[in-house]
Amino acid sequence: MAGGDRSVRISVAVDEGHCVHAHSVWAICARCVNACPGGAISLPQGAKAPVVDEQRCVSCGQCLSACSLGAFSSPEFSERRLLERIEKEGSIRLRCFLPYGELESLAQDGGSYHVCTCLAALSPGVLYQMATERSCELVTDRCRECVLFAKVEAGMRRNFEDARALLSDCGRAHHLWESSPLFLPKRVNDSDSNEVDDDATVCAPAPNVRAVFHSIFVSVRDNPPVKRKPLPLRALRKHVPEWRASLGEVWNMTSHVSHDGAYLWPVHVVDRNRCRACGMCMQLCPTGTIAHGFGDGRFRYSFTPGNCAECGLCFMSCPVAAISRERATNAAPFDEVECFECEAEPCPRCGLPNFASRGEPVCRLCQKRLGT
């Protein structure tokens, strides 16, 4: 499996429309700024997106996985391209962009694939994909010697551990391991790639996940997904990061073991006694994870855990503090979950839902506007 990406230095671009700061002034996210080891990313006061200083960028790619909404991209590297280039059969061995001038020794290493970024740039979704059907080794022998490690350690730990937790839910956690354990449990012996976890015995054989991911990436690139017909109160301009959308497709095709799970998905908790059905949370949600439905005398509030970017805009923007967030295991995280449903009728003043159980002539939003 010798080979790798053609470049050892990447450039990054920012899509302003995908940044959480472009959606609301309530946004307080600074993940990209905190993750950048070279201090190349800044967020000017009042800006709708971060700014990248190309002179200070060290091409580690950490921002690619740090941004929960996928606002960063690179013309030289993408996870879709990585999936297209790796060998279809056999185990996978990934090495980073090697800031030690070791490209000649890398060319002699016929068992590894050279990624043109730091391994911290790989999202949990692509690690899950590569390790679902076969062994995936991450070469971390010299990570602690790297001058970037102190800054990228937190992001690398998060991505590795999240990927292993996702794999654990389908009985394949042992497929993902490190050559020199930093964050993942130590591999017991060389036959681990063929071993079967106790929980995995109840798991059906996985489909050709690489082929599935490849088809999904190509489909997203060439055929933008058709937006679902909006519900009466659903806002537009929604964007689900590519790795989350791909993970959702493959997750639903993979058999999962019958245990409580390891990965903790977000849980959206709404206090129905406080909620005004104003739609503020839904309109500001950048991924369209929150949906309000109103019709046939019923108001429905639903949430899709797997698409949530955990940006916090929903509960920060709620005018009555009706939203809180928890985390829990979930066997079907990409299915809509109903937070609550109740009888409602259109407000005669604004048309928004007015909950019948409250017995008020107009909705609470109009009450506040009218000062009644």
TrEMBL record:
What domain of life does the UniProt record list for this protein's source? Bacteria
One Pfam family recorded for the sequence? Fer4_7
- Residue limits of the 4Fe-4S ferredoxin-type domain? 10-46, 48-77, 266-295, 299-328
UniProt GO molecular function: 4 iron, 4 sulfur cluster binding; metal ion binding
- Enumerate the InterPro entries for this protein: 4Fe4S_Fe-S-bd, 4Fe4S_Fe_S_CS, Fe-S_Ferredoxin
Q: Which Gene3D superfamilies match?
A: 3.30.70.20
Q: Which UniProt keywords apply?
A: 4Fe-4S, Iron, Iron-sulfur, Metal-binding
Question: Which PANTHER family does UniProt cross-reference here?
Answer: ADENYLYLSULFATE REDUCTASE, BETA SUBUNIT (PTHR43687), FERREDOXIN III (PTHR43687:SF1)
Q: What is this protein called?
A: 4Fe-4S dicluster domain-containing protein
